[in-house]
Amino acid sequence: MSVHTRSTEPTAAAAQEAEAALDAWHAARQAAVTGPVGNLALIETRWLDPGVDAAEERARTAVPDGVTLTTVRRTNLHTGEPEEALRFWDANAPAIRHFSHIAAYSFHPDWVVEATFTPVSTDRRVPFEHIRDSGGSRELVVPGDIHVTLDGVDYTLSAFDDDGTLLLVFGDPTNGGDTYGAGRFLFVPREADSETVVLDFNRAFVPPCGFSAQYNCPLPPRQNRLHLPVEAGEKLPVFRDGYTVN
After folding, report:
1. Measured between alpha carbons, how far is 204 from 29 in angstroms, rounded to an integer?
2. pTM to 2 decimals?
3. pLDDT value at position 67?
């Protein structure tokens, strides 16, 4: 099924260059998720009692060799108050020892799609359900709308601000089969003076929750659920010896 929306097809040389760049991206992803503070290394997220200072708790917590300690903050869904946690990263975690690779689709130029970005007020927030919140939602800043047509269907997608970068959380019919069941992520580069953005679904990736149950990943909102299978990008992490992410 063709979803290509560019005015010209890529040349053979351009396609070869794009495939080589994608191979390098996959190699970088493999290195990132297996690193000492990569997705596979997160073995515990320990939420602290109200009033406990995370920096002080971190300073007095002893950790064995190979374990890195960091802090993370979120907002309590019920009270709106900030919550802090310690995160424990083990460079020799079972998930790293059993990890093989991230299965992925082959490069497909039709899944490099041009779209239009329309900025909105910077204080607009959109609710996103999160995988560990039992149906609760957290409001994230969505600085604009992404308008794109796929297979004749018009979409207005919501990508939230992830430390200055647009992050699209999307779902499609491959989820739960070929790809991660809760959806996938895609970074969307954007030039400040341009209305055009490119959605390169060949770089869609498995969210952190696909590598460790210690994450609380956002889920695709209704407007980000696509009707056609996106057979591009990462599929699933592959583990040896029957290991599964709990």
Report:
1. 11
2. 0.92
3. 97
